[in-house]
From TrEMBL:
<feature type="domain" description="LysM">
    <location>
        <begin position="9"/>
        <end position="57"/>
    </location>
</feature>
<feature type="domain" description="LysM">
    <location>
        <begin position="65"/>
        <end position="110"/>
    </location>
</feature>
<dbReference type="Pfam" id="PF01476">
    <property type="entry name" value="LysM"/>
</dbReference>
<feature type="domain" description="LysM">
    <location>
        <begin position="113"/>
        <end position="160"/>
    </location>
</feature>
<dbReference type="InterPro" id="IPR018392">
    <property type="entry name" value="LysM"/>
</dbReference>
<dbReference type="Pfam" id="PF10648">
    <property type="entry name" value="Gmad2"/>
</dbReference>
<protein>
    <recommendedName>
        <fullName>LysM domain-containing protein</fullName>
    </recommendedName>
</protein>
<dbReference type="InterPro" id="IPR036779">
    <property type="entry name" value="LysM_dom_sf"/>
</dbReference>
<dbReference type="InterPro" id="IPR018911">
    <property type="entry name" value="Gmad2_Ig-like_dom"/>
</dbReference>
Length: 265
């Protein structure tokens, strides 16, 4: 499954930009930008870009996605794009001093990964694969060139939002990927004393991993990072299942901030 590794930048084309200047600025290559964004016939003349278009630009190394702030951007608009809370975006970006004030050219970590479209893909199939919706994919990629709800082409790179709730976002494992014992479960969480939980259930209802504790690096009201190796208590009985990350109410023990991640075994 072509999940694209690297550091990804979501960049808004500015007046006077060309692909060479963007590639040089962000450490990428013109050919990669053209392919990732459909900047070739029949969609457009080779290399033609227009101010206001949103491009996905990837450089080698790392494994995160950042959006570069353009005029008119706000954390609220980013939250809407990535189906995440404004508080969460602010919490995972400690370099931002004020959630109501971001500056042009600031780099903001966003909860999204990049998927390269394969032969035979449709948006419906991709949405099902990652446990999201076509509407969410289109919203996350709004403003990008050569994107249609009806037709997508191999090589195009789509932004896919990571699963999140108001206070938890899971960055790893990526939805729709195969997990094994010892693989890393990581993300950000805001919880009382940093205490959250995870559980894995297969699609037959077998509890593969009993409810298990995770300790985030910070306790609420701050967002902390978390990273632990996944453990199995039982052998999965199906090839698909669900990873659940959540907290429990201190008052009645009810599940809060549940994040569901579709997984394969």
């Amino acid at each position: 499954m072509p999940i694209e590794n690297g550091t990804h930048f979501v960049y808004t084309v500015q007046q006077g930009d060309n692909l060479y200047s963007i590639a040089n600025r962000l450490g990428s290559r013109v050919a990669d930008i053209e392919r990732a964004n459909g900047l070739y016939p029949p969609f457009t003349d080779p290399g033609l870009i227009n101010p206001g278009q949103l491009l996905v630009v990837t450089k080698p190394g790392g494994n995160q996605t950042f959006q570069i702030v353009a005029t008119g951007d706000t954390l609220t608009s980013f939250a809407q794009r990535y189906a995440a809370g404004t508080d969460l975006l602010f919490g995972i970006n400690p370099q931002l001093g004020n959630p109501n004030l971001i500056y042009v050219n600031q780099t903001v970590l966003v909860p999204a990964f990049v998927y390269e479209v394969a032969q035979g893909d449709t948006l419906t199939r991709i949405a099902q694969q990652f446990g999201t919706s076509v509407a969410a994919i289109l919203r996350t990629n709004q403003g990008r060139p050569a994107l249609s709800a009806d037709v997508i082409y191999p090589g195009y790179r789509l932004l896919i939002p990571h699963p999140s709730s108001s206070n938890i976002v899971v960055f790893r494992p990526i939805p729709g990927t195969t997990i094994q014992q010892g693989q890393t479960l990581s993300g950000y969480a805001r919880a009382f004393e940093g205490a959250i939980l995870y559980q894995i259930v297969d699609d037959a209802g077998t509890t593969v991993t009993n409810e298990s504790p995770i300790q985030a690096s910070e306790g609420g009201p701050a967002f902390g990072t978390f990273s632990i190796p996944i453990r199995f208590n039982r052998t999965p009985q199906t090839s698909t299942g669900q990873l659940r990350v959540y907290s429990r109410s201190a008052n009645d023990g009810s599940i809060q901030d549940l994040v569901r991640v579709r997984i394969l075994f």
